Amino acid sequence: MQLLKDRIRKDGKVKEGNVLKVDSFLNHQMDIRLFREIGKEFKRRFEGTEINKILTIEASGIGIACIVAEEFDVPVVFAKKTQTKNIAGEVYRSQVESYTHGRIYDIIVSKEFLGKGDKVLLIDDFLANGKALEGLIDLVQAAGAEVVGAGIVIEKGFQPGGDIIRGKGIHLESLAIVESMDDKTGEITFREK
Ligand code: 5GP
Question: Model confidence at 87, in pLDDT bands (50, 70, 90)?
């Protein structure tokens, strides 16, 4: 998606530890005009796929997921990050190792909002090692629902997440795939599809 790649080149900041900061338009301040274009692009890429729910993970996936959900006219459920141990039975629970914070946390979804027969599109802002998506996939499987696809705004193609998720046979669409980035020069290159 050219508009997105141009924006990443213009406003993205490469930090140490292979972290790309896009705080000024994606996951702190949010450019809703850009989000609308992102929503339309996901709609185009998943055209013909039966979807009745979008699942994301708090916090930075939520804004994007809401705009995408409007395109598909389906509800959004977001997995909550939690440290409290809910009573077993009420929620589906998985564990995710955080890329940016390096710690492991639980994610939960209430059994009320995910179940058999749901056809779920996963949405998130970044794909790095694939842990966040794997956690979401776990929750969907625990619910007896089906993952019909995964939509990522920025995939870091030099990290293993993309291969891991595609290797599971999941239809993964990433709107920008970063091929390389350099924290010294700030240079970012993209994979051409
Ligand atoms: P993964 O679980 O695939 O290793 O990492 C994905 C999650 O980590 C995303 O939900 C995202 O919030 C965060 N993340 C991973 N890499 C980056 C990055 O380069 N920049 C930002 N802002 N977040 C990232």
Answer: low
- Mean pLDDT, rounded, of the chain: 96
- Reference 66, options 48, 58, 81, 54; nearest CA is 54
Q: What angle do CA 3, 79, 137 make, to 5 degrees?
A: 80
Residues 23, 63 contacting (CB under 8 angstroms): no
DSSP 86: P
pLDDT, residue 193, reads 67
Asked if the model's pLDDT at residue 124 lies above 90, the reply is yes
How open is the CA angle 179-46-161, to the nearest 5 degrees?
Answer: 35
pTM of the model: 0.97
Residue located nearest, by CA, to atom 24 of ligand 1: 126
| Distance from the alpha carbon of residue 127 to the mean position of ligand 1, in angstroms | 6
Stated as kind and residue range, the H or E segment containing 32 is: helix 32-45
From the CB of 41, is ligand 1 less than 6 Å away? no
SS3 116: coil
Ligand 1 pocket check for 19: Cβ under 6 Å: yes
